Amino acid sequence: MIRRFAGWRWLLFTCLLTFGGSLAATPSGSTSAPLQVLVADVWPWAYEDEQQELRGLLPDLFAELASISGQALNVRRLPHQRLLHDFERGQGDLSILFANPEVDRFAARSAPILSTRFMLVAPRDSAGELSLSALSGKTVAYIRGTFYGSAFEANQSIIKIPVHHLEQAVAMLQVGRLDALISSEQVLHYTLQEIGSPADDWRIELHAEEQMAYLYRHRENVPASRIEPLLAALEQLRASGELQRLMGAPSPR
């Protein structure tokens, strides 16, 4: 399925699109070199539309931050595992990621972006408790590279099945190739909405409360002072409610 997601306010700054899944945003009057921003190639956070243009929740957010702050940004979309690898090697300056102890080793949590909950999902007609302990010995899909909290990370009793997009995991559930999946509520909401599957068609149970995603800054690449305009722009969006509008989603549960 070709994914669609409405990008907006792209005309507020000059955009240069490349075939590498990147977007350079250079606001009028900006003279500093662009900061290198890495975003995960995960629907709906970041993806290419039918015209091969970079779209999604994170590109929309960085578009707003570039416009308000005047800071030039080069946003690059990568598979999640590649993003983590490149970010650690210093091939990116900023990224938005769920709190992750591995990323904390080389990057600073500069600002909270959104809080989410992680949900476990199973077919409506499945029986028994829907929890990690009850799923021992069963297959659970997850988006490769996402940190779902220490309990999921440490669990060795379930059979973890990595997928690139949640839509793939939902399709596998529908044909009985999985027992369950785990997802943030934002990704779950937009995926079910995209494929036209009502939340009532599924069993959805809370796995973990209040997982926070942060704007991470690579410590060696970028001094904290360099991103002060971006942080001020972020607080402006937060105060106006625009940040929640851009990044939030109603729970599908």
TrEMBL record:
Keywords: Signal. Transmembrane segments: none annotated. It comes from Halopseudomonas salegens. This is Amino acid ABC transporter substrate-binding protein, PAAT family. Belongs to the bacterial solute-binding protein 3 family. The keyword Signal applies. Residues 1-24 form the signal peptide.
